[in-house]
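Think of the structure tokens as a kind of shorthand, similar to the way a musician reads notation: each symbol stands for something richer, in this case the local conformation of the backbone. In the example below we present two proteins back to back. Begin with the first one, reading the sequence and then the tokens, and try to describe in your own words what changes along the chain.
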Amino acid sequence: MALTAGKLLAIIGDEDTCTGFLLGGVGELDKHRRPNFLVVDATTTVSEIEDAFTNFSKRDDIAIILINQNVAEMIRHILDNYTAPIPAVLEIPSKNHPYDANKDSILRRAKGMFSADELM
């Protein structure tokens, strides 16, 4: 899927994840000089993560929000209630935390849309 012109990825994750995507060229500042990423470390509060997610989800220049799954667990109460199709939210693994499909809010919701017969 190609992104529409002017649509960005947003990243909420650890330093390694954000650095990798920034080196790949996804870093941008909007017209208000707000970045499209948040580096989460030991000093980052849950409130800061919640604010970043809320702000990214309201920006009309962001099409996809990538979030490390271990960070997503910190704001699971928000992700479980997020229903907007755009920006899409994708939970991704980090270097130190493997991906667990059972924790992914969006994947669980998608599985619930289909019966077991349809998935075979």
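Once you have a description of the first chain, move to the second and do the same.
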Amino acid sequence: MYNGVCCSRNVSVGQQMLNNERHLGVAETKEAINAAAEAFKTWGKTTAKHRHDVLMKLYALMQEHHEDLGKMITLENGKPLAEGKVCMRVYCALLSSYASVGREHIRFIVRRAEEAVRTYGDHIPSPFPNIRNVTIKQPIGVVSIMTPWNFPSAMITRKLGAALAAGCTAVIKPPPETPFSALAITELAKRAGVPDGVINVVTTQKNVADVGREMCENKIVKKVSFTGSTNVAKLLYGLSASTLKKVSLEAGGNAPFIVFDDADIDKAVEGAIACKFRGSGQTCVCANRIYVQSGVYADFASRLAEKVSAFKVGNGMDDKTTHGPLIHERALEKVQRHVDDAVQGGAQVLVGGQRLPSPGTFWAPTVLSDVPAGALVNTEETFGPVAALTRFETEEEVVALANGTDVGLAGYFFSRDVGRVWRVAEALEVGMVGTNTGLISVASIPFGGVKESGLGREGGHGIEEYMNVKLIAFGGI
């Protein structure tokens, strides 16, 4: 356990994990929570200006070390260092590494830290002449942060930056697949001047369930922030309810991607590549169900297949690689199951469709046509590089298909009809809509979903999630 970035037992957690000597558990989690509670007594009383300055130093250090942070992410989960350059001009700017995403969130949360000095309260007129009602905003306290493996840097900085800016202290449980990015960020935070106990990291693989339970049920913890699957989000929500904690849950998605007859097909293809194949399809806002209107179906399918066939799958450290491996064997098995089910239902494989023979968990980027609306790939989140195309005829039909799911994180559509743009954007039951774009994930937007995709927002409104509003009624005036 990292206790405020410093190891509480003077043992390197990273080395401990590498040597597989032991796995941290409930005892260490309680110790981390207690350390965060003790640190909150002072950190929670610091000025917003002080927290702003510390976060600015952290941002500068992440910039200074972004090449190392990017390599660490590639080594942990396989992402290409230059993932921003996906297949021929799809992204307009080359990201040197996925650590750039983490730096982007730190930059924005630094701005939130600047806004912390302007987290104004209100004066609320009273019906009584001798009473004055005012509200103030205060940090919520100790926060439990649980993050996924697909964005090891960005998911932590998006949550942690807001928590620190608000004056909270944190206990972080990174996923067992990608612990080192979390440890690297906390080490940089120490160098930036974050005091001991403010940030605590609990790494574990064997004791994930027990550690997660403690982080949700411990009465000292006042808020839980989680990004991951819907099933786990529901479990953590139930555990947090035992003490009525405030929660932010960014759960699974099953994003529709709609191409209407009047769309710019080249732009639609670029958008599909950007939001379907980013991270080899392993992102929560990936296009999962691609609906194409009959009039442009054949044209869109052929152009998309041509682009995808040019992808180069391989080692993320190779600058020619456009797409890396899937995270583990279970991910491959799910993709295989979805593709097999679609083909058995009548779908045609235009590109890919199989595991690559090279060692590792590599799947060939795939385009399927004529996928039945009821296929598994349309009813479950695939989390892999499979573009499943389903034909539709009318706007009403496709909106019903898009909304016919229990989740609602993101949705995308392409159309040049202004009236349709407004109608469909308002009709889609999702928290975020990309209209004529496949890229919506930037630090400044309110990020989150509706229905079973979660609760709360991060990013643009993130700092509010880590603060309480307190009423003070002044009498005797």
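Compare your description with these statements about the second chain. DSSP finds 15 helices and 22 strands in the chain.
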